[in-house]
Design a protein that fits this description.
By secondary structure, the chain is of the alpha+beta class. The chain has helices at residues 10-26, 82-97, 130-147, 215-228, 246-259, 262-266, 327-333, 356-363, 411-416, and strands at 31-47, 50-68, 71-77, 151-170, 175-193, 196-206, 238-244, 287-289, 312-316, 319-320, 347-349, 366-373, 383-394, 397-410, 418-421, 426-428, 431-433, 436-444. Helix 1 (10-26) crosses helix 2 (82-97) and helix 3 (130-147) runs parallel beside helix 4.
């Protein structure tokens, strides 16, 4: 394994966190929490074979939240000097004293905090020479250009290696943290034929560089995707089944997470208010949160509140079993935190028996969506309307590419009308899912 190149040890970060807590207590805080972090990395972008950017990043920060009774104040700094730490704590205390009291404010209950230290295999530093990163980016781009002379342009290929570490602590005696890494290779290319140009991209992201797809494979696939979209047509307005390719299906899950998250729920800005225990998805759908998955991109043994995470069924047989709540939103709702302050942790959609080709055949005639555009989703009502591109399918086979269309429906109905989930599982950030086939959406075109 490559040697980490942090500026500070975890013990130093712990000492800073302890100083923050002591200063807050001495200043009159009834409770305090802090996060001390640092990170470093390198990102290289190549476009048309030429180096476009080489970026080295090294940053650090301290965030301090203090409570004076039910009044809350927050301040931050990137200066680790004792004076800066003291000034930041004092600033947070000053803010708290001028803030209105909030009954939901405060630390997590001590019994909920993580006490068991787990190694989730999240730290794999990548000591990547700039020259090697450039070669990898060029290889990704070149693989797309080799495919066909119609691949004429590129938006660039990027190779990034990032490492970070942190310590989180609070005045209930919680103090924990760990290093982690995240690396990726991406490329976006343009295929042209006559006056038509089509763009597509692909990327691979992982905790360990050895788990990344090869640059050549990424570039080749991005190029093939761009080429396949040439000679696209528009569709007349109709109603038809829609198959969301795995990356687009990931976005559908993202809308569910937003609607099932505490902030939207206690503000009554979600169509899933009071939906616990009800049939939200088709009975074939299962969603499980797996926060302790080794090398998972969203793995963590505690959340941003310090609360211990645990595996759980979020949706079982289509029935909503739980929301995504942190301490604050849970109190606002009169519920218990689910350990989701900061977001969901490795949300896994249970795969069905069909692969991607099997789903296309099962759909028979309908729309395969490979790209979604725009922000036309209303979390309050569930109304859904987004620009899309993809392929028209007839007789279980891809007939031709389509673009400049809009798909519309309502997420309540879309979730309940899922007829199949693919086993073409893809990891994209905090969600892991295959393609999703939905019966009956409105497709607006000509």
């Amino acid at each position: 394994m490559a040697k980490a190149r942090f500026s500070y040890t975890l013990d130093t970060l712990r000492a800073i966190a302890a100083d923050v807590l002591a200063r807050a207590r001495a200043g009159g805080a009834t409770a305090c929490e802090t996060e001390v972090s640092e990170g470093y990395g390198q990102t290289v972008t190549v476009r048309m074979g030429e180096v476009e950017t080489i970026e080295h990043n090294r940053d650090k920060g301290i965030g301090v939240t203090v409570y004076v009774g039910k009044q809350k104040g927050y301040a931050s700094t990137s200066d680790f000097s004792p004076k800066a730490v003291a000034d930041t704590v004092d600033a947070a205390l000053s803010i708290a004293r001028f803030t209105a009291a909030d009954d939901a404010a405060g630390l997590a209950e001590p019994e909920l905090l993580a006490r068991e230290i787990r190694d989730l295999d999240l730290f794999h530093p990548w000591d990547l020479p700039v020259e090697r990163a450039i070669d990898m980016a060029r290889a990704a781009e070149a693989a797309a250009f080799r495919l066909d002379p119609r691949v004429t342009n590129s938006e660039g290929a990027t190779v990034s290696a990032q490492q970070s570490q942190f310590i989180a602590a609070n005045s209930h005696g919680f103090m924990a943290g760990y290093p982690s890494s995240r690396h990726y290779v991406s490329v976006a290319v343009i295929a042209a034929e006559g006056d038509e140009m089509e763009r597509d991209d692909w990327y691979s992201s992982a905790r360990a560089s050895g788990d990344l797809a090869s640059p050549e494979a990424i570039g080749d696939y991005a190029g093939r995707r761009a080429l396949a979209r040439l000679r696209s047509r528009k569709l007349s307005t109709r109603r038809a089944p829609v198959l969301f390719e795995a990356p687009a299906a990931n976005g559908l899950l993202g809308h569910f997470v937003a609607a099932a998250s505490g902030g939207n729920l206690y503000r009554k800005a979600s169509f899933l208010v009071d939906a616990l225990g009800t049939q939200v998805f088709a009975p074939l759908v299962g969603l499980r949160e797996d926060p302790h998955r080794p090398r998972g991109l969203a793995s963590a043994y505690f959340d941003d509140d310090g609360v211990a995470t645990r595996p759980r069924d979020v949706v079982k047989d289509g029935v909503l079993q739980g929301y995504f709540l942190g301490v604050y939103s849970a109190r606002k709702l009169g519920m218990q935190t689910t350990g989701n302050a900061g977001g969901n942790h490795n949300l896994v959609l249970a795969p069905g028996p069909d692969d991607f080709i099997g789903l296309i055949r099962r759909m028979g005639t309908g729309l395969l969506v490979t790209e979604l555009m725009g922000q036309g989703v209303n979390t309050v009502t569930g109304d859904y309307s987004r620009g899309a591109a993809g392929y028209w399918v007839e007789g279980g086979e891809i007939a031709y590419p389509v673009s400049e269309i809009t798909i519309a429906g309502n997420l309540r109905e879309m979730f309940r009308n899922i007829v199949a989930v693919g086993n073409d599982t893809l990891v994209r950030g905090s969600r892991i899912c295959g393609s999703i086939l939905v019966d009956g959406l409105t497709i607006a075109g000509n």
